[in-house]
């Protein structure tokens, strides 16, 4: 399936005939390779290795991944199926630590299993598939709603800067940060986008630049270090980024380099927005200080395209995300509208009632 706005970009993932297929995002844009994931380990590894990535897409993949993981258990007695379900959910939850959507979606799947009145394992499996499909449909809808609320921020002639890939490839719809961009573009508004390349894994260059071009959006690729100087030259009117986890006070984790962008935006007076669905809110985490930041292998920094670019044996720090304090955020673009300061009160007012109850996914 190709989303109508793109020339030939396949859907981030599909579920057909009880089979989960993803685009291997590590190979884009050079090759479009669709991969079927048939075991819990394959799903875990695809998430861990960023073949499927971006907080909302990870959440949807994990929901279907749990279904894939349970296919072999459909003949077990119900008690055995339920025990295996809890185990598999905890296993998938360990694939990556920072994006809360992974844990959110697995908890939601476990709650659906608890609620289901299924009297045998095969029926419980079907109930899980239904819930995963519902999470998938909602994700597409949430992107659209984020797009509608964020679109007024993009006006004729303006410059929009984004970081990493919070786009269609990071979700199963129009993206989060990119949804207002796609919608404004479809409205015929002429504006330009600057995409940070996003070292070290280049999600901005490989994925954001690629998908925006596929939709014929005017996009210019820049190195991460160029962003502040573009702001100094008044080329950037608004920054829109995604998020992997938003704490109750409005601090948020996103791809490494987001914090520097937020600081530069504050310095140059550029509005700085975070686009995310409510599945990225973690109201159980009071502030950003306790968000677990994924540390990735040093090879991602010392090597580029398989070539060594740093001295052998050099010490490397490679955190995949950073935490931006809420004070630097102008607003959160969510499916319910743009949330302004004070974030703690306003996020709670809109979403507290729906905070997920504690569950067994670790
Ligand atoms: O390591 P990644 O590629 O999964 O990081 C992705 C990001 O940081 C995105 O900005 C975030 O997940 C939001 S995606 C809508």
Poorly predicted runs: 355-360
Small molecules bound: 5-S-methyl-1-O-phosphono-5-thio-D-ribulose
CATH superfamily of the largest domain: Translation initiation factor eif-2b, domain 2
- Give the N-terminus to C-terminus distance in angstroms: 34 Å
- Cα gyration radius (Å): 20 Å
Count every beta strand, where a strand is a DSSP E run of 2 or more residues: 16
The run of helices and strands is EEEHHHHHEHEHEHEEEHEEHEEEEEH
What is the total domain count?
Answer: 2
- The secondary structure category is alpha/beta
Strand content: 15-25%
In what order do the strands lie side by side in the largest sheet?
6-5-4-7-10-15-16
**Number of helical segments?**
11
CATH topology of the largest domain: Rossmann fold
Note the overall shape.
globular
Largest sheet: 7 strands, mixed
Protein name: Methylthioribose-1-phosphate isomerase
EC number: 5.3.1.23
Keywords: Amino-acid biosynthesis, Isomerase, Methionine biosynthesis
Pfam families: IF-2B
């Amino acid at each position: 399936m190709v989303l109508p706005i793109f020339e030939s970009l396949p859907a981030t993932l599909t579920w057909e005939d009880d089979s989960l297929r993803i685009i291997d995002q590590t190979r884009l844009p050079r090759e479009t390779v669709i991969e079927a994931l048939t075991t819990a380990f394959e799903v875990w590894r695809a998430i861990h290795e960023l073949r499927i990535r971006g907080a909302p897409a990870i959440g949807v993949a994990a929901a279907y991944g749990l279904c894939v993981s349970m296919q072999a258990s459909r003949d077990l007695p119900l008690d055995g199926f339920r025990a295996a379900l809890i185990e598999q959910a905890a296993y998938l939850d360990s694939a990556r630590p920072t994006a809360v959507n992974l844990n959110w979606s697995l908890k939601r799947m476990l709650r659906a299993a608890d609620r289901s009145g299924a009297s045998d394992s095969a029926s419980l499996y079907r109930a899980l598939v239904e819930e995963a499909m519902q999470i998938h449909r909602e994700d597409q809808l949430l992107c659209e709603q984020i797009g509608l609320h964020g679109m007024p921020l993009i006006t004729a002639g303006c410059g929009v800067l984004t970081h990493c890939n919070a786009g269609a490839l990071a979700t199963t719809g129009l993206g989060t940060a990119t949804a207002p961009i796609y919608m404004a573009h479809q409205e015929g508004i002429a504006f330009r986008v600057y995409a940070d390349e996003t070292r070290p894994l280049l999600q901005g260059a490989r994925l954001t630049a690629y998908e925006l071009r596929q939709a014929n959006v005017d996009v210019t690729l820049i190195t991460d270090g160029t962003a502040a100087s573009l702001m100094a030259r008044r080329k950037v009117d608004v920054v829109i980024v995604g998020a992997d986890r938003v704490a109750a006070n409005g601090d948020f984790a996103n791809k490494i380099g987001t914090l520097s962008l937020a600081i530069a935006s504050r310095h140059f007076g550029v509005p700085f927005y975070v686009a995310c669905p409510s599945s990225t809110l973690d109201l159980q985490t009071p502030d950003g200080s306790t968000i677990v930041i994924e540390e990735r292998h040093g090879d991602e920094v010392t090597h580029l395209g398989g070539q060594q670019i740093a001295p052998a044996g050099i010490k490397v720090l490679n955190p995949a995300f950073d935490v931006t304090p809420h004070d630097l955020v102008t607003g959160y673009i969510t499916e319910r509208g743009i949330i302004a300061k004070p974030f703690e009160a306003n996020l709670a007012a809109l979403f507290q009632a729906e905070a997920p109850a504690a569950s067994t996914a670790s």
